[in-house]
Design brief:
479 residues; alpha+beta; Naphthalene 1,2-dioxygenase Alpha Subunit, Chain A, domain 1; Rieske Iron-sulfur Protein; 2 domains; 25% strand; binds FE2/S2 (inorganic) cluster; binds fe (ii) ion
Length: 479
């Protein structure tokens, strides 16, 4: 991909610049919108970090080719940090969590000193998986179900049945192969690369940006998973841009600034989008008043409308943020008064390469994860988690169990899921199925074998693919 590096200093006068990457939606920018808020956004939200990354087509074969997929399996998945579980999934010594991606399986084990170790989930006798599938459990030792070879929680070989027959097995060299671990934001990360640089280096700007968002002070309130009929990149890229809202999710347009979302890229591993809530979509022909915006956002909860008058000098955003600060604070049993209007109502979404998406805001507190299933380039496991703030005066709730949604089922069936929100994900699923099939059609008909991206609204997709290319080429990575 061509990548002329040029930082944008785009004028926001609504004109279309002839310089690639400099044109923007003429509606007010997110930065302009948040400047009118009553409780100002933190410093990490008051800058832009866009760079034009080129405008060449992205070949669709990247999403269908078994050869390309195998290269990813060789050069990306075993070389990058991925979150395996939350700390609260494995609170006690002996608790373990099996994380699987593609053909890889890793067992993460809580140690007696509260640290975490991870091992390749394969027996050193004849290769059997020590635990058969993904998920959590508890054990005093790691014992293979085939012939009973057994390892201690720290990976040291403990027992070989009929050891007299294995004089050639030196316990010292039969320690379970360790996988690097790291912890951040309440997540336990693993990296199969024996030469992996520390997680802290990999995370780039994330620890700084998330310093006041306290993801370690949250818990998994909802956890759902669905197999999607598409490549893992196809699935993930649907969540890196807001350009599709107009056509795919028209019901979301009232109350969200979609065409004027802000897109930022940081180093090779991190990107973000930042969408203002409580404003009119630039696509709406008839713009709602501030009071109408509030009324519209409270559909379904009209009992509170009387308290929701937009006062002199106020905006819908200010009123909605105040409302959510109070109602979500009561619901979660915690004080949310320190959060800005933006953190309360905006959609703030970070991507960490290769497969983690994080929403630090409070009204949409999701985490997404995208993983290839086995060696199939056309199947992806997509998970959605809701991370809610821990209550101030109660014990932390147990993390929610994974609810598996079948491909043909709606996300709305998940207990605790807002059906209207589930319908949004259903709309995305329909697109993904069609897009993956469309890639194959394009390849076989041979007419247009690349996808064309918007310079600004789809820059995170280009950034993501550029990082993939760097890993595949063995180039130096900039965290
Ligand atoms: S394969 Fe594990 S003990 Fe034999
Ligand atoms: Fe979508």
């Amino acid at each position: 991909m061509n990548k002329p590096a040029r930082m944008s200093t785009m004028p926001r006068d609504g004109t279309t610049s002839l310089v690639s990457g400099e044109a923007r939606c003429p509606a007010p920018s997110v930065q302009e919108i948040i400047r009118s808020d009553a409780k100002p956004a933190p410093a990490v939200l008051t800058h832009e970090h866009y760079e034009f990354l080129g405008d060449a087509d992205i070949p669709v074969a990247r999403y269908t080719s078994a050869i390309f997929f195998e290269r990813e399996m060789e050069l990306i998945w075993p070389k990058t940090w991925q979150w395996a579980c939350r700390d609260e999934h494995i609170p006690e010594a002996g608790d373990y969590y099996v994380y699987e991606v593609g053909p890889f399986s890793i067992i993460v084990v809580r140690q007696r000193d509260e640290s975490v170790k991870a091992f390749v989930n394969s027996c050193l006798h004849r290769g059997t998986k020590l635990r058969p599938c993904e998920g959590e459990g508890h054990a005093r030792e790691l014992r293979c179900p085939y012939h009973g070879w057994t390892w201690a929680l720290d990976g040291g070989l403990k027992k070989v049945p009929c050891a007299w027959d294995f004089p050639h097995v030196d316990p010292e060299s039969y320690h379970l192969p360790e996988v690097a671990t790291g912890r951040w934001g309440g997540f336990v990360f693993v990296n199969l690369d024996p030469d992996a640089k520390p997680l802290e280096d990999y995370l780039g700007v994330l620890p700084d940006h998330f310093a006041d968002w306290g993801l370690e002070e949250r818990y998994v309130d909802l956890h759902m998973a669905k197999e999607l009929p598409c490549n893992w990149k196809t699935a993930q890229e649907a969540f890196l841009e807001s350009y599709h809202v107009l056509e795919t999710h028209p019901q979301l347009m009232a109350g969200v600034g979609d065409a004027n979302v802000q897109y930022d890229c940081y180093g090779d591993h991190v990107s973000r989008f930042y969408a203002a809530g409580g404003v009119n979509s630039p696509h709406m022909e008839e713009q709602l008043s501030e009071q109408e915006l509030v009324n519209m956002m409270l559909v379904g909860d009209r009992s509170v409308l009387d308290d929701m008058n937009v006062g002199e000098g106020e905006t819908a955003r200010i009123v909605m943020a105040r409302f959510l600060r109070r109602t979500l604070g009561e619901k979660y049993g915690t004080d949310l008064s320190r959060f800005s209007d933006s953190e309360m109502i905006d959609t703030i979404e970070y991507h960490l390469f290769p497969n983690m998406v994080l929403f630090p805001g409070l009204s949409l507190p999701m985490v997404y994860r995208f993983r290839p299933i086995g060696m199939d380039p056309n199947r992806t496991l997509f998970e959605i988690l809701f991370l809610r703030p821990l209550p101030d005066d109660r014990d932390p709730p147990e993390p929610a169990q994974v609810f598996h949604v079948k491909e043909e089922e709606s996300y709305s069936i998940v207990p605790g899921m807002d059906p209207a929100f589930g319908a949004v994900y259903d709309q995305d699923t329909n697109n993904l199925r069609s897009q993956q099939k469309g890639y194959l059609n394009a390849l076989h008909s041979g007419r247009k074998t690349g996808q064309t991206l918007g310079n600004y609204q789809e820059v995170r997709i280009r950034h993501f693919n550029a990082t993939i290319d760097k890993y595949l080429a063995g180039e130096a990575i900039v965290p």
